[in-house]
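Thread: heme C complex, take 2
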Amino acid sequence: MKKEVVVLALGIFIAHVAAAQSSAAPAAPKPATQASSAAPAGKTAGEVMKNVQVLKDVPASQWNGVMAVIAGSLGVSCEHCHAQPYDSDTKKAKQTARSMMKMVREINANNFGGRAEVTCNTCHRGSLQPKAVPALWSKTLDEVAAFKKQQQSDLAANGQTSPPGGGPAPSLPSADRVFAAYRQAVGSSPWKSTHITATTAGDLQPSRTIDIDMVVPDKFLVRVPTPAGENRVITNGDRGWAITPQGRRDLASGDVENLRKNFADQFQPLKHAEAEATGKVTGTEKIGDRTYTVVEAHVSTGLVRLYFDTQSGLLYRAYSENSLADFASAGEVTFEDYRDVNGLKIPFSMTARTPGDRVVLKISEMQINLAMDPAKFDPPPPPPPASSQK
Ligand code: HEC
Ligand code: HEC
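Output below.
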């Protein structure tokens, strides 16, 4: 079973930062959030949470991510299953969910060698009521093409001839060539530091302004003004802090790692370079009136599928799948509105979609390689004893 740190989509993460609570679960009540975010790396949910009976072995640092995947798979908010406090079992839905968790683990243990092949989403597909009756034919042109391709390969495997229209596949460029074109399109100015002002807004979140200072690869200062005062998140190497008007909190190492991945990977000009080594071109796809070359790769976090514009060479979309304990999740970021910043092509609009929300980030201002005072990223002073919350 893969146990990997999930890469949260950028926008969702920013929303968490802005929410002034744990960077891992804005919606969870105080006791739950503290339990998980204060959890030392390596502890399991069974050790840290009060009333976890089935998913005991899930790392505490991944707990809120797992809950978000479950909520997304059923198309509900946390409150559908949880009353206050979160460890109480008063809601029928929570009890049903627990027995479903047992059922899913048994299905996987008995049929799939314990691999997480069946998940909540296998049946629920974003709704509370799984449908036993198959949906009526309603395929898009791309899906019809995929269906015919599958039919041809099944016919060929049976030794039957293909139905007409199945000519040879068009020749595709290699992943190396696609990446070379991408590198060239992005530009090669040095990339050492950046200052970004942006707004984010989600389907479930209000619009916010954020201000980011970053020194590549692991120093960040993210500032989010809120009506109650400014929220800040600082990371410096492998340490990090969340500072709100109420006080300051050390980030768990998993959160620091997620932040680094989100910010460094999302804003750096050349994205997903890790995919170059193992990537394979799987085909082309039309989205709107443009054509994209699709590269699929298996990287440290899971599967990524990258869509490169066949004309400009630039990255349009990155779809990724990863596993959180034994739950599969997915995310997608679409990059648009590329503009020139010191000779680099940077997307000024990014739309992140996860099972839980869709968040759009729009950059209003970006400067790169400006001198930055390293003291900005220093640990904030410890909170005065009176306001320390525990
Ligand atoms: C479909 C129902 C369902 C949804 C939706 C759901 N949970 Fe849970 N949650 C559960 C169940 C069931 C458990 C107990 C799991 C077990 O016993 O292994 C649990 C346990 C928890 C716990 C541990 C509480 C304790 O101390 O024992 C926390 C914290 C939590 N959930 C947070 C969340 C958050 C945050 C969300 C929204 C992102 C969420 N949950 C959405 C069903 C749900
Ligand atoms: C094998 C298919 C299947 C899988 C896998 C599955 N479920 Fe279900 N689930 C169902 C069906 C079918 C129903 C509806 C039962 C009914 O209508 O009485 C249901 C109902 C539920 C309900 C009650 C719905 C409500 O109105 O509150 C919850 C909660 C739930 N499932 C949670 C989960 C969770 C969490 C998982 C993953 C751990 C999961 N299910 C996995 C088939 C499945």
